[in-house]
Specification:
Shape: globular
Strand order of the largest sheet: 1-5-4-2-3
Mean pLDDT: 89
Low-confidence stretches: 4-9
Distance between the termini: 49 Å
Number of helices: 5
Length: about 110
């Protein structure tokens, strides 16, 4: 009986997506509770405007993996780029690095 419950619980945990692409309304709500907000665009793009207190970690920078690895992998991360391509790529990298939950802004900064 206990083994069966364990199997059921493990299958439920595996169904929780690590990366979730979300609309700006949910992204805004999550920003209130989660402090790891990452803008993966270039510094020039970031300096032209960004969301809230976002940290700029350019996904195209050769040191991106090392920089993002310094974040808390157990806390949710909110990530965005210009339209969604680079943030999707960054989310895959973060997932590979062991981040537990990543929220990717659908449509990126242009949709903000």
């Amino acid at each position: 009986m206990h083994i069966m419950m364990l199997i059921v619980l493990m299958s439920c945990v595996q169904d929780i997506p690590q990366v979730e692409v979300i609309e700006k309304e949910k992204f805004l709500l999550l920003m209130e509770d989660h402090k790891q907000l990452i803008d993966v665009r270039t510094p020039d793009e970031f300096n032209q405007g960004h969301i809230g207190s976002a940290l700029n970690l350019n996904v195209n920078d050769p040191n991106f993996e090392a920089a993002v690895s310094k974040l808390d992998k157990n806390q949710p991360v909110l990530v965005y780029c210009a339209v969604g391509g680079r943030s999707g790529y960054a989310a895959k990298i973060m997932k590979k690095l062991g981040f537990k939950k990543i929220y990717d802004l659908k449509g990126g900064y242009r949709n903000w």
